[in-house]
Design goal:
With 452 residues, the chain is mainly α. The chain contains 17 helices and four strands. The protein has a four-stranded antiparallel sheet, covered by helices on one side. The longest helix has 54 residues.
C-alpha cells in the first residue's frame, strides 16, 4: 500500500469541503452584481436587506467550512506524523545497528516537513488550484474579452511558476543534501566528543562545522532569493492584470456591453482565481522540499513490515549455525576483511556457550550475526529450523553493554509497568539462574552486584 492510499480518505473529505468553500466564496461576487445591477437601479431597500441576510449566512457557512477543512488536514498531519515518526525512527535505529549507510532513507525532518505542509496553507492552495478553470469559465460567461484576459493572466503566472520550479528545484535539492550532511557531521561530533576533546580537536571541528554551515546558509540564501524575487514579480503582475481587467470592464460598460457590476465582479473574481497560484509561488521552497520528502517517506511506507511476517510459534531455543562466513564489507562497507569463516555449531535449549578470544577476533560480530543484525555472506543461522530473519525482533535478544542498569531493569525494558514482569522475563530468557547466582555472590564480591 502506498502512502497516498493511507491518506486518500482524508484528502477526499478535504476536496468535498473545498467544493463547498469555493462555491461559497462566490457570494461576495454575486452580492456585488445584485447590488449594482438590481438594488441601485430599483432603489429597493427590501432587496438590499434580503441580500445582506443571505450574505451573512453564506459567509458564516464559509467560515465554518474552512475551519472544518483546516482542522481535518491538521488532524491528518498529526496522525500521519505519529505513524511515520515510528517508522523513520525504527529505520534509523535499524540502519545504525546494522551499520548500513542509507543516504536516501527518510528522516524525522522529512516527517516534520510533511506534517507542516498538510497542516498549513500549501495543501489548501494545491487543492484549490483546479478551481481556476471554473473561475475562468465564469469570466467567459460574462464576456469573452474578460475571459481571454483571465486566461492570459493564468498562463503568465503559470509560466512564472514553472520558471520558479526550474530555477529552484536543483538548488533546494542541494540545500537539503547539505543540511542533512551537516546534521550528520554534528551528530558524529557529539558521539565522539571525548575523543575530540582528548585530541585537542575542538577548534578544528568547530571550523569544519562552521564551513559546512556557511555552505548551508549560502544555498538557502540562493533558494530564498530566487523565490522572493519571483514572488515579488507575481504580486506586481497580479496588480497589473487587475488594472487591465478593470480597464477592459470599463470599456465594456462605456460601450453598453456590460454593467458596472460585471466590471467589479470580474476583477474580484480574477483575484480569487489567481490567489492559489500566488500562494504556491510564495511557498515553493516548502513545496519542493515536501515533494522530495514524500518520495523518501513513500519508499519507507512501502517497506515490508513485521506484521507481514509468518507467525511462528514460541521458540523452543534450538540454535543451528551452518557454515557461517562474514566479512566487514557485508555491514555496508564496499571493502572489508574476513571476520568469520566457516563457523558451524549447534545449541540445544537451556545450553550455554562461552566464546573466548582476543580483542577484535570476531566475538561481537558473531553475536550480531546470530541475532540477525548483520546478514552473513555465506551460511545460515536457524532458530528451531527457521531462518533467524523470519523471527520477530521481540523473540530475540542480545545485550552488549547496552544500559548501565541491572539485569532486572533490562529485562523489564526500562519501564515501570514491566518491572514486575522482569523476573518472568529473566526466566524466559534462561538467565534467571545467572541472576540468582549473582545475587548470592554479590554479598562477597561487588562485581556481581552490578548485574542485579
Amino acid at each position: 500500500m502506498t502512502l497516498f492510499h493511507a491518506i486518500r480518505r482524508h484528502l477526499w473529505l478535504a476536496v468535498l469541503f473545498g467544493i463547498a468553500s469555493n462555491l461559497l466564496v462566490l457570494t461576495p461576487t454575486l452580492y456585488l452584481l445584485q447590488v449594482y445591477d438590481r438594488v441601485l437601479p430599483s432603489r429597493s431597500l427590501e432587496t438590499l436587506a434580503m441580500l445582506i441576510v443571505f450574505m451573512v449566512i453564506a459567509l458564516a457557512m464559509m467560515m465554518a467550512v474552512d475551519m472544518v477543512r483546516t482542522r481535518l488536514l491538521a488532524d491528518l498531519g498529526r496522525q500521519l506524523a505519529d505513524r511515520l515518526d515510528r517508522l523513520a525512527l525504527a529505520a534509523k535505529i535499524d540502519g545504525q545497528a546494522r551499520r548500513i549507510a542509507q543516504p536516501g532513507l527518510a528522516t524525522l525532518q522529512d516527517v516534520s516537513s510533511l506534517r507542516h505542509f498538510l497542516s498549513g496553507t500549501g495543501l489548501i492552495a494545491l487543492l484549490d488550484l483546479p478551481w481556476l478553470l471554473f473561475y475562468l469559465a465564469l469570466m467567459f460567461a460574462f464576456h469573452w474579452t474578460l475571459g481571454l484576459i483571465a486566461v492570459f493572466s493564468a498562463v503568465l503566472l503559470g509560466g512564472l511558476t514553472l520558471l520558479n520550479d526550474r530555477l529552484t528545484r536543483e538548488r533546494v535539492r542541494l540545500y537539503t543534501g547539505h543540511q542533512r550532511e551537516t546534521e550528520q557531521f554534528l551528530a558524529q561530533i557529539n558521539r565522539n566528543a571525548e575523543i575530540v576533546v582528548a585530541l585537542g580537536m575542538e577548534s578544528a571541528m568547530t571550523d569544519a562545522w562552521s564551513a559546512r554551515r556557511r555552505i548551508d546558509m549560502d544555498a538557502e540564501a540562493a533558494v530564498t532569493g530566487t523565490s522572493s524575487s519571483n514572488r515579488s514579480i507575481s504580486r506586481v503582475l497580479r496588480q497589473w492584470i487587475q488594472v487591465v481587467m478593470m480597464g477592459a470592464g470599463a470599456w465594456l460598460v462605456i460601450n453598453q456591453i456590460a454593467t458596472g457590476g460585471v466590471m467589479l465582479a470580474t476583477t474580484i473574481l480574477l483575484g480569487k482565481a489567481l490567489a492559489p497560484v500566488e500562494q504556491l509561488l510564495g511557498s515553493w521552497k516548502q513545496l519542493v522540499e515536501v515533494r522530495q520528502a514524500w518520495g523518501r517517506l513513500d519508499a519507507l511506507w512501502r517497506r515490508p513490515s513485521a506484521v507481514n511476517r509468518v507467525e511462528l510459534p514460541r521458540p523452543a531455543g534450538r540454535l543451528t549455525v551452518e557454515a557461517l562466513s562474514f566479512s566487514s564489507g557485508s555491514s555496508g562497507n564496499s571493502r572489508g576483511r574476513l571476520l568469520l569463516r566457516n563457523v558451524q555449531f549447534g545449541l540445544q535449549p537451556g545450553h550455554l556457550l562461552v566464546i573466548v578470544g582476543a580483542s577484535a577476533s570476531g566475538k561481537s560480530t558473531l553475536l550480531r550475526v546470530l541475532t540477525g543484525l548483520w546478514a552473513p555472506q555465506v551460511g545460515e543461522v536457524r532458530l528451531d529450523g527457521s531462518s533467524i530473519a523470519q523471527w520477530p525482533r521481540e523473540r530475540l535478544g542480545a545485550l552488549s553493554r547496552l544500559f548501565s542498569s541491572g539485569c532486572r531493569t533490562v529485562c523489564g525494558h526500562g519501564s515501570r509497568e514491566h518491572r514486575a514482569q522482569s523476573q518472568s522475563r529473566c526466566a524466559r530468557f534462561g538467565i534467571y539462574r545467572t541472576c540468582r547466582t549473582a545475587r548470592a555472590r554479590s554479598r562477597t564480591d561487588p562485581w556481581f552486584a552490578q548485574w542485579l
